[in-house]
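Hi there. Long-time user, first ticket. I'm pasting a complex I've been working with (about 407 residues overall). I'd like to know whether the download I got is complete or cut off, because the file seemed smaller than I expected. Thanks.
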Amino acid sequence: MKQDKYKKMAMKFGALFFVVVLFLTYFSKTIDNLLLPKVKVSDVITGSLSEYPDTMHTHYLLPLSSVVSEEVYVIFTDEKGEVTVNAVSVNICGSNDLYYEVTSESLFSDMQVVYKTSKEIFDGDRVYVEEGE
Amino acid sequence: MKKIIKCIFLLLVTAIFLFPVVYMIACSFMSSSQISKMLDFANGEYKDLNMIPEMFTLEQFYQVLFRRPEYLLKFWNSVIITLPTVIGQVVVSSFAAFAFAKLKFPFRDKLFFIYIVLLILPLQVTLVPNYIILDNMNLLNNFLAIILPGTFSTFGICLLRQSIKYIPDSSIEAARIDGASYFRIFTRIIIPQIKGGLITLTLLCFIDNWNVVEQPLIYFEENSMYPLSITMADISNSDYGIIFACGVMFMIPALVIYFYGHKDINLSIYDIEK
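Hi, the file is complete. Here it is re-exported in full:
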């Protein structure tokens, strides 16, 4: 009788284990991505807002919401496909209703910057990039 | 006094055997930084033997279960390899063992002798011939490359033949007189009496195939087909924390099967001894 009880327990535990592993196999990435801060990104555009731009440095146009305290978060994708954000300092040269004109040693035109996030993000955080509108 | 010494000796032996498992479980709850501080294999150093986590964390399990589904896929590769092999081996072995133990046909004993010789041969001896045969059958890079040789393994036949041999011939003869076919005798008389042997074979076959390392490395070219046992054996992998967490996950099915059948295994071993 006691033996049957152990057998039943082992069977139940085994079945539960396999169901959980099967569930996680399909939904692990989804659950992981749901827990990450969702960000919207914009390409870094080279250009200037002034009529007579400074030709010594490359000037970039970034959405207003992407620059906070002279810092922007750029997207970095590693070889495993994990997306993280890195903080980059920028010098603000000017602005209009849509863009900041900035210069930076660490910013390049093939980068993307975060302009909207669902949670507070910090340097090195993993994020989930949502499709922008 | 003699009893105490015996007790201490047994406790020591148990501790030695259990140490790697306890160490693995302890390390699976450590942070990756503590593990890399402890095990600096890259520099040929083994710095510290610490079994107490500085900070108890489920980080490694989170990595395996949520962030790195490739390890879960490898777990399923292990299941795909093991489950059909176990079922196949138990079915094939029980039929073959019945034939070798109870049926009379020409060259039966000589054939069984060849089976025993095959059983004694180390795995590595048959690895290359198997590779060539599987290549000719276009079965390389296919799970059948491991399932088929495992299904027709000689070990199960030898094990079950011993169990079936102890069943009295008179019960089979009586069933024959009553008009039962051999298949009916097998299912109604033989199978219920070798239940312990079948569970023993299931467990041993499961362990054998669950821990398989050499065959996948040789028969599979694609890493995605490797079972989790290969990851366990991959010392060059720098993610030791993940290996420890995978190890804990990897041993659960084997423990479940053992807890399910250990009473029957003990019974069958006593039966054989009697």
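A couple of notes from our side: Chain A touches chain B at residues 3, 6-7, 9-11, 13-14, 17-18, 21, 24-25, 28-29, 31-32 (CB under 8 Å). The two ends of chain A are 64 Å apart (CA to CA).
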